[in-house]
Amino acid sequence: MARTAAPDTATTIGGAAVAAAGPLALTRQLDVGDVTALLLLAEVALAVGCGLLAARRIVDRSRAGVAALIVTGLGPLLFRLAPVPGVAVGMTLLWLVTAATVVAAVEIARTTRLGGVARWAFVVVAADALLVAVMSTVPLGAFPLAYVDWHLDAVRPVALLVWGVAVAVQPHLPAIRRRAGAVDTAWRESTTVGGASETRDSRERVPHD
């Protein structure tokens, strides 16, 4: 069970940044011309978001989890900004980032600081990264190649969006539940009072012989 945490601005901003990276990455689907700047912004948002979340130690005291989360966030940005000298080096870096993503997912799933969707949604990101790395290394036929094109537009961005929103909301869940409970209680009380008043009025209107 996740620990109840006080509202944490850095965690909220970090989660929001990761969530923003998802829709920005989805712009590659839109036929609006060159979206390089938006994709670069998505990668910057992911790097900043993962960095903030690592700094806030959402993976508890796991140093491996902190390092893995940072590498996961920086990986796509470094691939874009730094030219890779050769296929062998590129594949090595791809597997390094993929391994970091898997480690980050395991440590996030083990953490006591998150719960529910915030704890498990990142597993989808890691599974997607692992599948793409395998298919980029081993030729598996036409279907995997079609998936490589499709996953970039849907699976990982959507998973990042869901996970980022869940993480951003997590510190505020106790307050949200309290407010929702107060609204529900007030509504029930008003309904009860209103129903009692209507019953009393109807009794007073009954004609007497």
UniProtKB/TrEMBL annotation:
<keyword id="KW-0812">Transmembrane</keyword>
<feature type="region of interest" description="Disordered">
    <location>
        <begin position="190"/>
        <end position="209"/>
    </location>
</feature>
<feature type="compositionally biased region" description="Basic and acidic residues">
    <location>
        <begin position="198"/>
        <end position="209"/>
    </location>
</feature>
<protein>
    <submittedName>
        <fullName>Uncharacterized protein</fullName>
    </submittedName>
</protein>
<feature type="transmembrane region" description="Helical">
    <location>
        <begin position="154"/>
        <end position="173"/>
    </location>
</feature>
<keyword id="KW-0472">Membrane</keyword>
<feature type="transmembrane region" description="Helical">
    <location>
        <begin position="64"/>
        <end position="82"/>
    </location>
</feature>
<keyword id="KW-1133">Transmembrane helix</keyword>
<feature type="transmembrane region" description="Helical">
    <location>
        <begin position="35"/>
        <end position="55"/>
    </location>
</feature>
<feature type="transmembrane region" description="Helical">
    <location>
        <begin position="88"/>
        <end position="108"/>
    </location>
</feature>
<feature type="transmembrane region" description="Helical">
    <location>
        <begin position="120"/>
        <end position="142"/>
    </location>
</feature>
